[in-house]
User: Which sequence fits this backbone?
């Protein structure tokens, strides 16, 4: 009896491809019969092996398709001939070849580099196989139905509660950012800022398997820690340090190292160096498992399946209603966002790091595509300009018997060769510029581009696509003309050919004008933000972080006194935060109301703790009232900014002085109103702020210096710090440099876009130069005759230039309205932005026009100065 299974299918498919059809039916029947006989004698596995072996033995020349035919050989000869002819054509027309290869190689290099950047930005969380099923839980603050703030941190019990209440949730993990601690190993001290308290499930959900240690039951107890591979080497000069212990500032109990994991990848939004067990938050930091008052925890849920996300969101509405009934939430709602959307689509307060921007990524991708299109347009344009010469060639070859297919393959072969040469040159350009580009774009320096199959796949795909698009015109248009017509050169004189060339030139320069206007706008917007009045003075200010050990904080007065004994230092101030630091350095609170308010609102206020010298050190301006007073307790007194009183509806700063607010169950009096200052860059709107008094050296000390040698002043601060706080790491930053970090993304965008624009102009001008070169070559006799008849050089230049200049002018007219709407939409991302001045368009238009005229003059001057006899004698 025949077995229920059948032989493998692929060997028969192979035979169908290789063998002649005459033999297939008989061979197929015999092989199947032999297979079933073998199944009765041997095991199924052996019968299949014998079947495959019999198949391979049948692949032999005598049975193969067309093996003895000469068609394959003829095809080989035809391809070889096409290749030789194409090489001769490209070699004979050196200017044409160089312009096309240079334009295409630059376009390819730019496109590949931008795609490298976009691939990295779009790859966030791809390292994690569970990322598609994970969501982050965040909180929206509401004033009625209006969302007034979005906070990406939540309450500690929220994630465990959702794990219980939602059938779609398979697991959860939390991460609490413990900002800026001192780690001690023996006598050495290290300052760390990327440290999180997490649940044991974190390693599974975020896919961090242990290199050393046992992952089972890890982080079930307090005072356990896991280090990254790099940090273990830094602390112990080795990686297998499981069982060792470290000390964390302010906590007497040693932390036992339970495991070593790989470093956080560059493409994750949650980067860390040290992880401690979440139960440590309750044992050492005073937090509570049922804390519904302090939302300082990142929460992540793992769904059972990606498809369950829709039902999860539907159930989230009922869950919010239940929490409001239980009075766990008030004027808040729980929001979920897919984890893979965080980096490019999330801009909430208290993000772990500055996220990317999807608009910028896709904007640059669009520009890269446009530059490739410009390079392809160059090829097509130059092909049409050479149409008379190539049309005659087509006519001759058709008369001699060439078919349409042969002609088309010939032109496509030329296009393919040019694009492959361009791909080779583009690879060299990328090798030369990769380091500079990664620095400019903020990419990790360890990117392995040339070993990435994606790179070669994209390069080959672009080359093939570009070869087809740029070669399709000469291949399918020129090759289809009637021999008599093309030998007379009718196409080059036709309105169709002229219109196509003009349209392509207009297209190229329309794109070039847009890129130049965008570049100038981005540059002006960046300069505007940097030059804008911040409401404070960030120059010559050194900010020193506190030592964290409580016993050392008592030495602050000694530290301050020693600093002020030197004339290099003007003032010293304490604060919980300084302008320019990320939002997680501040605290926030809701529910603060004016005592006399008739209507309650639920605005989110940012809190600053400062001493009596902070405002003067930062040179901030009080619009009304007074500062905190040295020596006074300053209890139940607050200073607010203008944005806060605007939200409360107070008409003026003077009217706010003396008013009382309900603050955490107590009443506090407003003693001063501070002029709005930019805590973040001018890209963001002002935020409502409340300043409370604290004279403890708990976070930061800001030291304003006199003008002079910065290195000497910094060295003096460090020596005084180490003398006052021995065996404690000195951690500092310059306020202006820290503040300017906020502009890094805008600077990178502006630099990358400027480079793209420069290359786009180069490619467009190469195309224009090539077009002018071939146009003049066709009009050499006309120019010679005009010179013989007495035409001046400037008259010839005007004659040759006016058509091209008019085309550039048309592109300006088309580009201006299109660019206006795109730029206006782009600027709306900024809270404070430049006005769209007419000069944003005039300067780029004049620049492109001058570059175009210079490109045209470069060639027309050369031909205008030629001896007319030489051009008239040329045939």
Assistant:
């Amino acid at each position: 009896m025949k077995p229920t299974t059948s032989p493998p299918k692929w060997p028969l498919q192979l035979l169908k491809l290789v063998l002649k059809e005459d033999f297939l039916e008989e061979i197929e029947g015999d092989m199947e019969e032999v297979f079933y006989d073998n199944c009765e004698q041997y095991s199924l596995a052996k019968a299949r092996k014998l079947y495959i072996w019999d198949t391979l033995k049948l692949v032999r020349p005598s049975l193969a398709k067309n093996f003895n035919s000469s068609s394959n050989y003829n095809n080989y000869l035809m391809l070889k001939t096409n290749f030789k002819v194409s090489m001769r054509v490209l070699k004979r027309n050196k200017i044409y070849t160089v312009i096309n290869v240079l334009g295409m190689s630059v376009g390819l290099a730019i496109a590949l580099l931008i795609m490298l950047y976009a691939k990295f930005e779009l790859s966030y969380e791809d390292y994690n196989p569970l990322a598609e099923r994970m969501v982050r839980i965040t909180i929206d603050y509401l004033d009625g139905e209006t969302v007034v703030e979005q906070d990406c941190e939540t309450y500690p019990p929220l994630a465990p509660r959702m794990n219980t209440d939602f059938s779609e949730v398979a697991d959860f993990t939390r991460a609490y950012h413990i900002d800026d601690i001192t780690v001690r190993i023996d006598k050495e001290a290290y300052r760390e800022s990327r440290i999180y308290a997490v649940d044991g499930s974190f390693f599974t959900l975020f896919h961090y398997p242990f290199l050393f240690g046992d992952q089972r039951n890890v982080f079930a107890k307090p005072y356990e820690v896991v280090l990254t591979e790099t940090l273990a080497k830094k602390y112990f000069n080795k990686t297998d340090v499981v069982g060792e212990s470290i000390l964390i500032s302010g906590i007497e109990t040693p932390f036992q190292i339970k495991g070593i994991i790989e470093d956080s990848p560059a493409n994750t939004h949650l980067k860390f160096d040290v992880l401690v067990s979440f139960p440590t938050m309750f044992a050492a930091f005073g937090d509570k498992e049922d804390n519904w008052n302090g939302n300082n925890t990142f929460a992540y849920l793992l769904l059972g399946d990606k498809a369950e996300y829709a039902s999860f969101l539907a159930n989230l509405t009922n869950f919010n209603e239940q929490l409001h009934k239980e009075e766990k939430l008030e004027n808040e709602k729980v929001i979920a966002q897919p984890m893979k959307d965080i980096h490019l689509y999330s801009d909430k307060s208290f993000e772990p790091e500055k996220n990317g921007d999807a608009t910028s990524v896709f904007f640059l991708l669009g520009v890269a595509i446009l530059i490739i299109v410009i390079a392809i347009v160059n090829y097509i344009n130059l092909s049409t300009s050479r149409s008379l010469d190539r049309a005659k060639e087509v006519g001759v070859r058709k008369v001699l018997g060439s078919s349409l297919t042969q002609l088309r393959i010939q032109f496509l072969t030329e296009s393919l060769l040019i694009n492959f040469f361009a791909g080779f040159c583009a690879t060299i350009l990328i090798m030369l510029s990769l380091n500079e580009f990664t620095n400019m774009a903020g990419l990790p320096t360890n990117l392995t581009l040339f070993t990435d199959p994606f790179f070669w796949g994209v390069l080959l795909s672009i080359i093939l696509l570009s070869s087809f698009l740029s070669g399709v015109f000469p291949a399918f248009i020129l090759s289809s003309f009637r021999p008599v017509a093309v030998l007379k050169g009718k196409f080059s004189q036709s309105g169709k050919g002229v219109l196509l060339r003009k349209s392509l030139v207009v297209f190229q320069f329309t794109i070039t004008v847009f890129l130049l206007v965008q570049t100038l706008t981005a540059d002006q917007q960046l300069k505007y933000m940097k030059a804008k009045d911040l409401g404070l003075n960030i120059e010559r200010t050194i900010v020193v972080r506190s030592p964290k050990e409580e016993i050392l904080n008592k030495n602050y007065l000694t530290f301050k006194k020693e600093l002020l004994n030197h004339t290099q230092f003007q003032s010293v101030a304490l604060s919980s935060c300084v302008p320019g630091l990320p939002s997680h350095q501040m605290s926030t609170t809701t529910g603060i109301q004016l005592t006399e308010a008739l209507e309650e609102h639920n605005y989110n206020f940012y809190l600053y703790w400062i001493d009596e010298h902070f405002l003067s050190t930062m040179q901030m301006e009080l619009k009304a009232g007074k500062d905190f007073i040295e020596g006074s307790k300053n209890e139940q007194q607050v200073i607010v900014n203008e944005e806060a009183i605007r939200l409360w509806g107070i008409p003026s700063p003077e009217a706010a002085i003396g008013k009382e607010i309900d603050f955490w169950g107590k009443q506090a009096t407003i003693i001063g109103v501070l002029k709005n200052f930019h805590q973040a860059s001018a890209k963001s709107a002002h935020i409502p702020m409340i300043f409370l008094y604290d004279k403890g050296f708990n976070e930061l000390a800001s030291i304003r210096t006199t003008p002079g040698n910065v290195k000497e002043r910094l060295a003096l601060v460090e020596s005084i710090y180490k003398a006052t706080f021995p065996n404690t790491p000195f951690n500092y930053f310059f306020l202006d440099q820290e503040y300017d970090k906020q502009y890094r993304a805008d600077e990178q965008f502006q630099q990358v876009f400027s480079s793209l624009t420069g290359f786009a102009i180069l490619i467009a001008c190469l195309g224009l130069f090539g077009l002018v070169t071939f146009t003049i070559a066709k009009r050499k006799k006309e120019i010679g005759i005009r010179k013989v008849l007495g035409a001046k050089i400037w008259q010839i230049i005007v004659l040759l230039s006016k058509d091209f200049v008019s085309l550039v002018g048309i592109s300006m007219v088309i580009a201006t309205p299109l660019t206006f709407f795109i730029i206006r939409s782009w600027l709306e991302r900024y809270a404070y932005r430049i006005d769209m001045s007419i000069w944003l368009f005039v300067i780029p238009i004049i620049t492109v026009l001058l570059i175009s005229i210079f490109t045209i003059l470069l060639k027309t001057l050369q031909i205008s100065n030629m001896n007319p006899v030489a051009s008239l004698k040329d045939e």
